[in-house]
Every structure is written in structure tokens, then in C-alpha cells.
Amino acid sequence: MRSPDDPLPPGRSTRAYAVITISLIVLGVALIAYFKPQLPNLLPVPPAPPPLFVTSSQFVDPSTGWMAAGHLSSITAASLYRTRDGGRHWRPLIPDLSVSQIQFFDRRSGIVLAPGRLEVTTDGGDTWAARPTPNHDLEPINGLRQTISFITPDEGWSLTVGPDLGDITHAQSAWIDHTTDGGRTWQQIASVTPGSDRSSGLSLFGVKAGIIFGSRTVGWIKGSDRSPQFLYVTSDGGHHWRFAHWTYGHSLATNEWMAGLDGVVAATEVQVSIPRVHTAVYVSHDGGLDWTAAPTPEAAGPAFDPLGVLDAQHWWLATGSTMWRTADAGRTWSERSAALPGGLSFYSLTPVSEQVVWAVASRAYPPDKRGERLFRSSDGGATWKAVQAP
Q1: What is the edge-to-edge ordering of all strands in the sheet holding 91-94?
Q2: Facing residues of 155 across strands?
Q3: How much is the pTM?
Q4: Long-range contacts for 106-111 (Cβ within 8 Å, ≥24 apart)?
Q5: How do residues 214-270 score in pLDDT, each as one tens digit?
Q6: What is the pLDDT of residues 254-302, one digit of tens each?
């Protein structure tokens, strides 16, 4: 018989040590699991990404679109992205580019506006060619502001606005340039500067905010002079301009649509003395010279924003997270209550078909959660699905 003091045989000794080792490991794991809430987190937690902002976007069909987006921590360094699968994946195209406008004509041909230049692509954004925009001896850092409008990949217009004139309130120089070769060359066709008018019909007074053309001959320039808002129209390709018959006191929003002689805009009237804010949709069928108010849903209230326009008949408008849709130019409306996450409101609407609508929703408060998110609807705005942004 083996004495208690005798050593274990080699085989049994190895097995015993193995059992003891395994038992200690199991006990250690159990203790870690039990005390885990009280142990400090030794692994660094990656910070949440900064809030997103979207400077410009365009979609040419339900699957294909481009977006200039960045983060509020570096608002001047927006990058350009492309999706070809409805927003499930985004490919970066041009990093750290301050894009102010995106204009694509199909899945391949497009133009983006960056400070002092155009970036032009013929393959959907895989490759780009830089072409300078007219600067009229001004630099972007000195107050140059520019907008473009192209009706084809070759033909377009540029509105260049100089800095506010120091001794005249709400006065700006402005130049209109025209290109027929995709921005390789530009021809100045109208201007207004101190001491020079060129008989274009433009006034030195007033802030010129943007240009849009619906055909080779018909276009608009919108702007303001203190509280009155104005709209210039042209019928000769931008050589001469005149004031439209516009409702005094109504401010043109950024939601405008134009095709040929037809136009749709949202406009807001702010009456400080009452106080009262009233938004309306206006329609023109003569290139923007005359405008009439279209019916809007009574339930939308006196103020709504934004407006999304697919064509002369199909529009969407929103208040907060509630949306309405019309298929007959405002004569009848159907309500589409969108279930957006708490605190988000519609900021922009971009319909690409009667069923597919893209939207940017924003949150302003609280400050640490402000930012924007991208959404997509496949049923005309009845339901919305969040899209993973780049």
C-alpha cells in the first residue's frame, strides 16, 4: 500500500496538475465575470463620430447619387461621395473639397462647384478634370461668392458676386458669364459694377443669391434688398434681366425647381410686428415673370419647410417630421406622417421618382447631438429608412 507521503506516479501527477490548472482558470474567469461592473475599463472606447453635415447632394435615379458631406468639427473640409446601390455603400471620390453645388445630368456626366473652379467628370466621378471659373480679379477669401446652373454638360451660366460695397448697404457688384464648352472658356454677357452697368438690367443694390436656368433662354436670379425680396428673369439667355412680378415681403427659399417655362418655388413671409410667419408655394408658367400661389394643406400650418419638387405636378412639403404629398400641383394633398427619430426634422427633400425620395433630417438641439442624417423612402414618403452616411 502507498504511503500518503509517497509521490504520485508520473502519469497521475501530470493529470492532477492539469485538473488544478483548469480549475484555477475557470475560477478566475468566474471572478472576472462577477466583478466586471466594478473593474475599470482598461480598453479605450472609440469616440463617437462628429455630427454630419451635408453641403450638397443629387440623385439621378433611385440607386445612383452623389453627396458632399463632412463633419461639424471641420465644416470647410467636406468630401465628395458616390453611391450606386441606394445608399448602402458610399465611395469617396474627392477628399476635403468644399463643394457648394453638385449637378449631374445622368449616371456619368456631372459638374461640381468648388472655390474658384469646376470639377468635371464623364465617368460618374472615377476621374475629374479641373476647370477654372470666372473670378473677375477676385479671390474666394476676399468675399467672392459664386453659383452655377448648367442645362447640359456643355452649356451653363455662372453668377459671380463680389463683397458688399463698404459705403453702400446691401449693394454688390455682379457678373454673369456663359460657357458652351463645359467651362473650358467663359464669356461675360452681363454685369453691374460701380460706374459700369452694361445695360443688363441688373441693379447694383441688393444681395444676389443664386442663378438657375430652365432652358437656353429662360433663367432667374434671386436676391434681397433688406426686407423686400426680388427675382430677376431673363428671356434671352442672360444678356438682359428684368424684375419679376413678385409678392412684396416674401423671401424665396432655396427650394426652387425650373424646367422650360415652368417653375415652382417656396417662399416665406416674416412679419415681425404681429409676429407671423407664412410660407406659400408659388407657380409660374411664363419663365418666372408672373407667379400665382398654389393651394397648400391647411394642416401644414402657416409655416413649412422644406419643399421637394419632382416635376410640375408632384411635390412634397414638410413641417418637422410630418410630410404631405401632391400629384396634381397642390389641388389635393395626402399626409405622410414620417416616424423620424426623436428631435429630427426634415431639412431637405430630393424626390427622384414618384416613389423614391431622399431626405436630409437635422437636429439643432441639444448642441452636443446636433447634426444631420440621411433618409430614403421607397413608397413616396409614407415610410423612411435611415441610410448609413459615409
Answers
A1: 52-59, 65-71, 79-83, 91-94
A2: none
A3: 0.77
A4: 106/60, 107/60, 107/61, 107/64, 109/153, 110/58, 110/66, 110/153, 111/148, 111/150, 111/153, 111/156, 111/182, 111/183
A5: 899 999 888 766 555 678 899 999 999 988 866 545 555 556 777 778 888 877 665
A6: 567 777 788 888 776 655 555 555 677 888 888 888 888 888 887 666 5
Give buried/exposed letters for 163-187 (b at 16+ CB in 10 A, else e): eeeeeeeebbbbbbbbbeebbeebe
Q: Which residues contact 41 (CB under 8 A, 6 or more apart)?
A: none
Q: How many residues does the chain have?
A: 390
User: CA 170 → CA 143, 205, 287, distances in Å?
Assistant: 14, 6, 27
Which residues does residue 75 pair with via DSSP β-bridges, in sequence order?
Answer: none
Whole-angstrom distance, CA of residue 314 vs CA of residue 355: 11
Per DSSP (E only), the strands in 79-217 are 79-83, 91-94, 101-104, 110-114, 117-121, 129-132, 145-150, 156-161, 174-179, 187-192, 207-213
CA dist 84 → 60, 130, 135 (Å): 10, 24, 34
Q: What angle do CA 173, 192, 170 make, to 5 degrees?
A: 40
Classify each residue of 73-103 as buried b or exposed e, where b means 16 or more C-beta atoms within 10 Å of its C-beta.
eeeeebbbbbbeebbeebeebbeebbbbbbb
C-alpha grid cell for residue 108?
456619368
